[in-house]
TrEMBL record:
Listed InterPro entries: Homeodomain-like_sf, HTH-type_TetR-like_transc_reg, HTH_TetR, Tet_transcr_reg_TetR-rel_C_sf
Signal peptide coordinates: none
DNA-binding region residue numbers: 40-59
Keyword NADP annotated: no
Protein name according to UniProt: TetR family transcriptional regulator
Record keywords, A-Z: DNA-binding
The HTH tetR-type domain, residue ranges: 17-77
SUPFAM superfamilies documented for this protein: Homeodomain-like, Tetracyclin repressor-like, C-terminal domain
PROSITE patterns the record matches: HTH_TETR_2 (PS50977)
Length: 209
């Protein structure tokens, strides 16, 4: 028997893209609160207030939903980082802003960061999602490299290393700093380590290639 909530959802005829967005939001909420394992299709449908069959209608399989969720969340993180890293002046400033942008969700939204980590771990174990860890890495590195190259072109300052190489180093540093923050929760320790990373990388990039 359909519940009142299900009946209301059935009457609400949304375009499929809006329904997909609604279900992705619900899936993210469940995963953030209870973990990826708790996000069954039934739990997601209940959170969204739609019939259980809506999940399969919109995505076909739960695997397809997980893929769409990870891609949308990574895209959102990349766009947020791109906006934050636009506030740059000199080389050290652009490196700091790009690196801080990568750390933003770790520091301010640990639930989102933990959800992404769980989703990537799931993707590594699932052959049908095995391409996603590499895709995620490329999205972050590509976006950071683009921002660094844009700054170099706008400032007229030549880079001592290719923008992509610098961006890859930044991703490695961001991972380590993120682990430091997750382990300690100490902002002062994180800020000191961040300063050392930025100054060391800027000094290295000021040397001839």
């Amino acid at each position: 028997m359909a519940t009142r909530r299900d009946t209301a959802a059935v009457r609400e005829h949304l375009p499929i893209e809006q329904r997909r967005a609604q279900l992705l939001t619900a899936a993210a909420e469940v995963m953030r609160e209870q973990g990826v394992a708790a996000a069954t299709t039934r739990a997601i449908a209940e959170r969204a207030g739609v019939p259980h069959g809506s999940v399969h209608y919109c995505f076909g399989t739960k695997t397809a939903l997980v893929r769409a969720l990870l891609q949308s969340e990574v895209d959102r993180s990349v766009e947020s980082a791109r906006h934050r890293s636009s506030r740059s002046t000199d080389l050290e400033g652009v490196l700091r802003n790009v690196l801080e942008a990568q750390l933003e969700s770790v520091r301010t939204d640990p639930g989102h960061h933990a959800m992404l980590d769980e989703l990537i771990a799931l993707a590594r174990r699932d052959p049908s999602l095995a391409d996603l860890p590499g895709w995620e890495h490329e999205r972050y590195v590509g976006a950071a490299a683009e921002r660094i190259a844009e700054w170099s072109a706008a400032s007229g300052v030549a880079l001592a290393r290719p923008a992509r190489e610098i961006a890859t180093t930044i991703m490695v540093l961001a991972t380590g700093l993120g682990d430091l923050w997750s382990a300690t929760g100490d902002r002062a320790v994180l800020d000191r380590a961040l300063d050392d990373c930025v100054r060391g990388l800027a000094a290295r990039l000021s040397e001839p290639a």
